[in-house]
Amino acid sequence: MKSNGPILIIDDDQKLRDLVAEYLGEYDFPTATLPSGMKAVETIRSLNPSVIVLDVMMPGKDGLEVLRDIRVEFATPVIMLTAKGEDTDRIVGLELGADDYMAKPFNPRELLARIKAVLRRVEACEERRAEITAIHAGGLVLNLARQVLEIDGGEVELAPTEFRLLKALMGHADRALSRDELMDMAWDKDFAAYDRSIDVHVSKLRSLLKPYPAHAKRIRTVWGTGYMFVGE
Question: CB atoms < 10 A from the CB of 18, how many?
């Protein structure tokens, strides 16, 4: 299970902070603590915690105010600690973006289980994002986040139009796509594209692939229809 940073515990109860930090340390979870939320944002910037354990009832700035501040800048998972029976705090906390909550007093073992569950959810979300930030077809990788084509260990930069067109072709590998379908996928609906403009951009893509013999014929002309990206 990945944990990119420490577990940040924000609570005005020193005994609780020490207890939780010691318990999590026994399970190889590094921790950092704060006695209030006054420096929470600055601390998150510097430490990049993997999970924040945040008490609601604190003097000065309470946990809900701190959560508002956190959510302006960070998506870090937050587990709220609330007084037993304070349903309002739990509801407001969830509405403000808390990921989970626990009522005090609590068993540190349950907190550990909640932390692990949150980290599993985060890791699963990252894996899903990774899956949709790249298209793999025919031994090529189209990096959607950076809009480059990864090929034979190198990268080929793409103009915006060629990128959108290749995204449509690779996203439907081994399927013939008509020029109309490609225009719908690669151009905004308000953009007046002509059939033959597709041909020009396909020609540019073929020129980019030509230096790579194994991939030079990935884009095939389907006579009477349009084009197809040939996968493995």
Answer: 13
Is residue 105 reached through a cis peptide bond, with omega within 30 degrees of 0 on the bond before it? Answer: yes
Identity (one letter) of the amino acid at 69? Answer: D
Rounded to 10 deg, the angle between the 63-73 and 40-47 helix axes is 40
64-120-128 Cα angle (round to 5): 105
For strand 100-104 and strand 140-143, is the pairing parallel, antiparallel, or unpaired? unpaired
Q: Which runs of E-coded beta strand occur in 35-122?
A: 51-55, 78-83, 100-104
Q: Which CATH architecture has domain 134-229?
A: Orthogonal Bundle (1.10)
Distance CA 53, CA 44 (A): 12
Note the pLDDT tens digit of each residue in 15-68: 999 999 999 999 999 999 999 999 999 999 999 999 999 999 998 899 999 999
CATH number for the domain whose boundaries are 7-130: 3.40.50.2300
Q: Residues 124-127: contacts with CB within 8 Å, 24+ apart? A: 126/2
Contacts of 25 (CB under 8 A, 6+ apart): 31
